[in-house]
Write a structure and sequence with these properties.
The complex is a heterodimer of chains A (301) and B (475).
Chain A lengths: L9 E7 L6 H13 L3 E6 L4 H5 L4 H6 E5 L17 H10 L7 E6 L1 H7 L2 H12 L15 E8 L5 H10 L2 E8 L2 E8 L7 E9 L5 E4 L10 H4 L17 H8 L9 H8 L32
Helix pairs in contact in A: 4-6
Chain B lengths: L51 E3 L6 E3 L4 H6 L4 E2 L3 E5 L6 H16 L2 E6 L4 H6 L2 E4 L1 H13 L35 E7 L2 H6 L2 E5 H4 L13 H16 L15 E5 L22 H14 L3 E7 L7 H10 L2 E7 L16 E7 L16 E5 L4 E5 H8 L6 H7 L11 H24 L18 E2 L5 E2 L10
Parallel strand pairs in B: 4-10, 4-11, 5-8, 5-9, 9-10
Antiparallel strand pairs in B: 1-2, 2-3, 6-7, 11-12, 12-13, 13-14, 15-16
Classes of the chains: A alpha/beta (301), B alpha/beta (475).
């Protein structure tokens, strides 16, 4: 599953933490895209270029297009090398790219961008960059997929920006692990379908290639099932919900008081002899006027 | 919002999906006296706008939301000039489906559409609308869907008190294309010619805003201002507010705004608690409601409220909208394993219903409503109905006949049934549990109050008795 991460396109969030760092996974994915022949752009903001390129072979290093914003993020040295507009300008420039073909853009790191740029601007720019392939240019030629890999340190941000970026992302990879074995929980949101959630154990080899593994044998079983038995709502009630067979038959044979059967109809229509002797019991209220005279007697008719 | 007298729109073109507004002559109000024939402006004509009907309670003009079950929960439909706010579920699957049902209903009725979105091109949204189910082919599809769902013992013929046979039956089947609410097939796309025959306007935010953002300090986010201006232009130019004296037929404008409040609109209400533009969304809703109240339009907004950090803002937004419906899907939550919810995909919460020209609103008593998206249909039901379908013996014998009969107004799934069930169950359990705890029945005061709140009870001498909960601890 981890190796087909880049098949979907769009924004891929790599959420790491202090215990389980994600830069090596980012570099492994970058190496994979470079080997597939895609164009790779790196926005380096958090570590220096030498540190990022360390560990890659020379042919991969030649394929990477590195935009360095670590050494001089605000362009104070004014050498003219840095791109105008900072990292945001670089991202926007990638929005209007002229050459077609699959592209991978690695953001190292998205946390740095979140801390230095307003969240809404960043979200809008990321959305435009990652959705370029859905708007084909006028000549109708197919545009290659754009993959945006963002490294996000989840401990640095509050629930607001994290939630906003999660809702934008097509895939979210949360790094974790147990006892030295790293795992990636991959949440894949397809546009109109249910999201899929999988966990993949892996390790990164020294040359930054991915090694997919089976999980450690101890906890391959899911924990939840033995502990929580399925809830039976009818178990501990104070009234009885079940009917025995005899009770069920008795219920079926019951005649309802309001059931309008033919016997009842005849009984109603037949003149009843008992009606002449019906009594009316009346207890007067406190406010009742017990005047026996008929008030209509005064009328002169 | 005028209460418009309606005449039964008897569409002669049964096959055509777009119901034309034909003035039919079947009405009981005939004009007496000499009728000036030949002149068009002689006295009040009975006009009806297609796809609308007056509410049976107060004559308010209503349109359908596209889901007849939701219409019933909202008191008959959506009033013209109001805002329906849908609080999105976490992965925005079902709320976008409700959004599309609303737009598809507009196309089928011939209303003008205005679709606004910041993340998807409106043309793509319209391509993905569900196909309407019309008279001939819908009935068998609906039946096969419903049939798969019925349990095998539903063929027991239930007896019922004869008075209830005369009550009107609830519409659970598909209706003809000229009626108020339509059914849609969620697995098929709407035919292309229907989209082309309809009139729609799209607002796609990245196109309307220039990429060089000079952020002006303004109380409303730039995107919202643009959207409001767009809506106002459309309303004015096409005469939905009566400004251009319309020679042609009056029509309804259906506005759909997707994912309002998300960061893609430029609003940081989902990112921070106290941002710069924290009031911009509420101001937008206020101005939008003003625009809607003075025109023949109706609006649906989907909003990712689960992302909004400041809970007070959600309360403001709820107050500023007319109808608020919240969707909660079970994907990824622990409720997925709860046996009560096992047939449902999520819960639907009706959080607010407006009181338009009324002192009270038509709030339904049933609170636990669940929805499920079957292969073709989206249905809304009371959650306990599912549980009780399996456990039919919960009633005393007499009541079960009163309430459960096939093909009656009190059948399962109807709201009358559910409301009665709910109150009956609440009373029964409270009664029984009190009997168990105190060995004495509750005094039947007859005032309808059933719950004795388990709070601290102070006797006159100041000693406090322990609160008796439902699980009484034995002394």
């Amino acid at each position: 599953m981890l190796d087909s991460l880049l098949a979907l396109g769009g924004l891929v969030l790599l959420r790491d933490s202090v215990e389980w760092e994600g830069r090596s996974l980012l570099k492994a994915l970058v190496k994979k895209s470079a080997l597939c022949g895609e164009q790779v752009h790196i926005l380096g903001c958090e570590v220096s270029e030498e540190e990022f390129r360390e560990g890659f072979d020379s042919d991969i290093n030649n394929r990477l297009v590195y935009h360095d914003f670590f050494r001089d993020p605000l362009n104070w040295s004014k050498t003219g090398e840095a791109l105008p507009g900072g990292p945001l300008g670089a991202l926007r420039a990638m929005c209007n790219r002229t050459d077609l073909g699959p592209v991978t853009i690695a953001l190292d790191s998205l946390s740095w961008l979140l801390l230095h740029l307003p969240c809404t601007t960043l979200c809008q720019t990321l959305h435009t960059v990652s959705h370029q392939d859905s708007c084909p240019p006028g000549d109708g030629s197919p545009v290659g997929k754009v993959h945006v890999l963002g490294l996000l340190h989840e401990e640095l941000h509050g629930p607001g920006p994290m939630g906003a970026l999660s809702s934008l992302a097509q895939t979210e990879v949360t790094l974790g692990g147990i006892m030295g074995q790293a795992s990636a929980r991959i949440l894949c949101r397809r546009p109109r379908q249910r999201p899929t959630d999988q966990t993949q154990w892996f390790s990164i080899l020294p040359d930054f290639s991915l090694d997919l593994q089976e999980g450690p044998s101890i906890e391959s079983q899911p924990h939840s099932d033995p502990h929580i038995p399925p809830v039976d709502p009818t178990a501990h009630l104070t009234f009885n919900l079940h009917l025995s067979k005899k009770e069920r038959e008795a219920r079926d044979n019951l005649t309802l008081p309001f059931q309008f059967s033919s016997e009842k109809q005849e009984a109603l229509l037949r003149p009843r002899p008992s009606q002449a002797t019906s009594h009316i019991f009346y207890e007067p209220d406190a406010y009742d006027d017990l005047d026996q005279e008929d008030p209509d007697d005064d009328l002169d008719i | 919002m005028a209460a418009v007298a309606t005449c039964g729109g008897d569409a002669g073109s049964a096959g055509s999906a777009v119901a034309t507004g034909s003035k039919s002559n079947v009405t009981s109000f005939q004009r007496r006296g000499p009728r000036a024939s030949g002149t068009n402006d002689s006295g009040p004509r009975l006009v009806s706008i297609t796809g609308t009907r007056p509410s049976v309670r107060n004559g308010q003009l209503l349109v359908s939301t596209g889901l007849p079950a939701l219409d019933q929960l909202l008191g008959g439909g959506l009033a013209v000039g109001t805002v329906l706010l849908i609080e999105e579920d976490k992965y925005n699957i079902y709320s976008s489906l409700l959004f599309k049902y609303f737009l598809a209903e507009g196309i089928v009725n011939g209303h003008t559409l205005l679709v606004a979105s910041a993340n998807e091109d409106p043309a793509n949204i319209l391509q993905e609308l569900p196909a309407p189910l019309l008279d001939d082919n819908c009935k068998k599809e609906f039946d096969e869907d419903v049939y798969n769902h019925k349990t095998p013992e539903s063929n027991i013929k239930m007896k019922i008190a004869w008075r209830y046979q005369l009550l009107p039956k609830m519409e659970i089947g598909p209706v003809s294309s000229s009626r108020f609410g339509h059914y849609y097939d969620a697995s098929k796309r709407i035919p292309q010619e229907l989209i082309e025959a309809s009139k729609w306007h799209g607002f796609f935010l990245p196109e309307k805003i220039s990429s060089t953002l000079k952020v002006e300090p303004c109380s409303l986010t730039h995107g919202y201002i643009k959207l409001l201006q767009f809506i106002q232009n459309i309303i004015y130019e096409e005469g939905f507010d009566g400004s251009n004296p319309q020679k042609k037929q009056k029509n309804i404008l259906r506005i759909g705004i997707q994912n309002l409040g998300s960061p893609l609109w430029g609003d940081d209400i989902c990112c921070t608690e106290n941002g710069d533009s924290s009031h911009s969304l509420t101001k937008f809703l206020y101005v939008l409601r003003g625009l809607l109240r003075t025109s023949l339009s109706v609006c649906i907004i989907t909003m990712p409220t689960h992302l909004i950090q400041n809970k007070a803002v959600i309360a403001h937004i709820t107050n500023l909208s007319d109808i608020v419906v919240g969707l909660e899907s079970f994907i990824g939550s622990e409720r997925e394993t709860n046996p009560l919810y096992k047939d449902y995909h999520g819960l639907i919460h009706i959080r607010q219903i407006p009181r338009l020209n009324n002192l009270v609103c038509d709030e339904s008593d049933v609170k636990d409503l669940g929805f499920k998206l079957k292969r073709k249909l989206f249905t809304i039901e009371w959650v306990q109905d599912n549980y009780l379908r399996q456990e039919r013996n919960i009633y005393p014998p007499g009541f079960s006949y009163l309430l459960k009969q096939k093909d009656s107004a009190w059948g399962e799934g109807s709201l009358q049934h559910s409301t009665f069930l709910m109150s009956f169950l609440a009373k029964a359990t409270a009664f029984a549990s009190r009997l168990v705890r105190h060995s004495e029945p509750l005094k039947q005061t007859g005032s309808g109050r059933i719950c004795q709140a388990a709070g601290p009870r102070l006797w006159h001498d100041g000693r406090r008795q322990e609160a008796p909960g439902l699980l009484g601890i034995p002394p």
